[in-house]
Amino acid sequence: MNSDKKILxxxxxxxxxxxxxxxxxxxxxxxFIIIIxxxxxxxxxxxxxxxxxxxxxxxxxxxxxxxxxxxxxxxFFFISVVFVTSNLTAKSETVAILCGGISFGRFLRPFIxxxxxxxxxxxxxxxxxxxxxxxxxxxxxxxxxxxxxxxSFVDIHIQSTDSTQVYVHHFDNKTNTxxxxxxxxxxxxxxxxxxxxxxxxxxxxxxEWIMTNYSVRHINGKxxxxxxxxxxxxxxxxxxxxxxxxxLKADQLNFNQLNRAIDRERMKGSSAxxxxxxxxxxxxxxxxxxxxxxxIGVSLSCKKTRGGTGLNIAAGIALAFxxxxxxxxxxxxxxxxxxxxxxxxxxxxxIFTFTAIYLTKIAPK
Length: 365
What we know:
alpha+beta, six-stranded antiparallel β-sheet, 60% helix, 6 strands
């Protein structure tokens, strides 16, 4: 009975160690296999672009490992839980533990601790690490694999604040230069200032915009004041070159940057707000799947079956893929339909939560 009250005992630490070891070995193996396959497809391009071996290894392939953790983490953690529980059951250790006075809820504790740890790790990786490494991956791809992205959009309108609108006819992302620039400032539904410039260029060293061949028109009721100039700094309310690219790379934004991007796009009245919200809630809520799948995995695997471990693992893979499929389906509903972005990841998780509760209740005690 005393062991039931302890936070962690020898059995708990044994189970946690087995789950985490199995999980991380599985993730590293699948990462290694995918890297080898990817390298075999891209090797000729790397040779043609004279990509250094150091850049290939450290700037690219090491940075892809967090992606594989994010993509396959649910599946392989679930398989790890099923594998460890099935082994305990096959050796009758599960029966011995439960018959020794340990409740099923207490038996679940090391599994829950492991899932919470991996879930928190997933939360940090998806919200902070992956956006950071994506910048290096994108730069490597542009330099050694793909042609550089060129902005081909024209007539770009941005509402930078509630009272300010910015326009460029065309923006060159290679030189961070906008052509035929206009900035309009409003007050009380009336235009107060209008700035024209042939060219606007972003100085990356000073982090400021410079306009060339400009005119500024100040309007105060019936009075107007017009000034001209060759070159001058201009404040465009914190806009950066990427804001003119129209292609918002959400996968390169960490949690704080993503929130700021949502605010900016909402201010512009952009349709990208919905997509960004879906990404935000996905990153925040989907790590909960580790806990849900753990409850399902343990409940399915703590009972001996004629098929043994293989049957449990097969059932586990089917359930994990079902959850992933449901998440994809509801993402489509949220992206193309009227489903609120918050519900896209939440509904599949709720469905599987009820499944987990049911399986936990009928599991052998």
